[in-house]
Specification:
By secondary structure, the protein is of the alpha+beta class. About 35% of the residues lie in helices and about 20% in strands. It has helices at about 20-35, 55, 75-85, 90-100, 100-110, 125-135, 160-170, 215, 235-250, 285-290, 295-305; strands at about 10, 40-45, 60-65, 120, 140, 150-155, 175-180, 180-190, 195-200, 200-205, 225, 255-260, 270-275. β8 and β9 (about 195-200) form a beta hairpin. α1 crosses α11 and α6 crosses α7. It starts with 7 loop residues before the first strand and ends in a 7-residue tail after the last helix.
Length: about 300
Amino acid sequence: MTTMDFGKVAVLMGGRSAEREVSLMSGAGVLKALQSKGVDAHAFDPAEREMGELKREGFARCFIALHGRFGEDGTVQGALELLGIPYTGPGVMASAVAMDKLMTKRIWLAEGLATPTWRQVRSAADTRAAFEALGSPMIVKPVREGSTIGLTKVMSADQCEAAYALAAKQDPMVMCEQFIAGDEVTCPVLGTGESARALPVIRIVAPEGNYDYQNKYFTDDTQYLVPCGLPEGEEAAIQALVLKAFRTLDCRGWARADVMIDAATRKPWLLEINTSPGMTGHSLVPMSARAAGISYEDLCVQLLATASLDNA
């Protein structure tokens, strides 16, 4: 497939989620990369333009560089299905499920995939009760948000009220999760079905172990180790786990799963899966792809080539 075969391409960026700022950075990078490869690509912000304009203006396919709700949660995917415009990344159901951390965990658990113990909470009192059950430290976060927005690592019971309030500000659905102490890693997947393949694992070493929004996108203090330097056999085991997690949710195109490795047992635990990962200068999928010999520009073209519809 040549870049001319793609037709007029919309890079969807911005949107209305709390991750709008990051999405604009991702979209700008993707747009520049596609244009450098001769693709007739144009920026399109669904927060500022009506989706129907995509059809009226003759766009043939979309690269989704939106993050979070109203972009990564099946809503935009559903609109594009109705418009009949192929798009990158997983379809409506997979996107909706993956955005909901609770639903994702329930499915993974049913399939025998390890994920940390959790509790859904509806109040500060529930959060305190979860803290008593899960122990310290405990993670409190919105169910349907990303980029660690609204997340708190709770060390004592007196932090529960503020942690719940911060998460609930982003999403009325809030969860508490057992904290796994150990190595933090992430692993992207490219492709669909049996042809999907896991890219190199990245080990993340953040300042004081705090991989928050600031350390993700706006500082150079976080270390990203690829090759990951894990003990022999662990990287392959994590790649196999992530591939199974990807296929279990019926993802296609691409995604990136986050995993914690228990320092004591070396057991990997799935945290979540991102179906429209970041494509900024600090983002992890391009970093892993580069380690596999795929340039940022070629990655963008490869992803665009996988654009499809659920029932195509």
